[in-house]
Amino acid sequence: MAVLLLSMISIGIAFYSLNQDSLISKTILRPQTDGRSYKGIRLSNGLKAMMISDPESEVGGAAMFVSVGSYDDPTFLPGMTHLLEHSLMLGSSKYQDPKEFINIVKLNSGVYNAFTKEEGTNFNFLVNHKSLEATLDVFSRSFIDPLLSDAVIEGEKYFIDYEFMNNLPKTEWRINYLLQMMANPAHPFARFGLGNLRSLKLIPEKHGLNVTRLARRFFNHHYKADLMTLVVVGRQPIEMLEDWVKNKFTLIPSGGNQAKAPTVSYTHLRAHETPEHLVCRLLLEKKK
Fold it and tell me: Which entry of 56, 85, 100, 119 is annotated as an active-site residue?
């Protein structure tokens, strides 16, 4: 539950402050019964961060929201964003053991999760508060210099295919696939964002595509600090948490003037209509 809450905070902050400085410039409102301290900052590379100091907490953690989702998949490689999410935490130039991150999380009674949505990807963890700084260091390097090795990329293709096959019999997934099939093909909702062995291995190999090389190119192009929002919570003082964030996450490359939040064309949407509403409307229109 705590990991989910941390993830939702990072997502909420990301969308609330995507194109404004409100997170940084305004006082953060909180209940009078909330004894925690909060501070929002923007690093020199453009990354937005919120630190939460909770002196009574026995755990510490972080959630990183990257404003790049399955809508940004290359049209010729469905599931690329999902594949990158699976592979990113499995080794970096500084911590080359693919199990380094998951081991430090497990050894400190922690949990880790990540998920890919249409317009963003979230990575989050919780650990014993004493190991927060060490875990943050390993965590941060995955956004700075991930290895994305051939072995890791190849192995994660099979994990994604297992996920695809496991979800296939579920009613909610079948309904979603049906809606995607009925959607306007010009809209990114119609894309196959989950990916499977066919989309990530068999078809690319048939056309001579190097998926590992494409994954690295995708990371280098999209994973910029300007498109990232970080939340860190711990029992340490807010000043210490801020120092950790600055020292570890300022190294993430900035996109400069080239970094923009992914833009999705909603030209087919009516006022106040979400992509899901659009699909339902098109479905009804086709029946007429």
Answer: 85
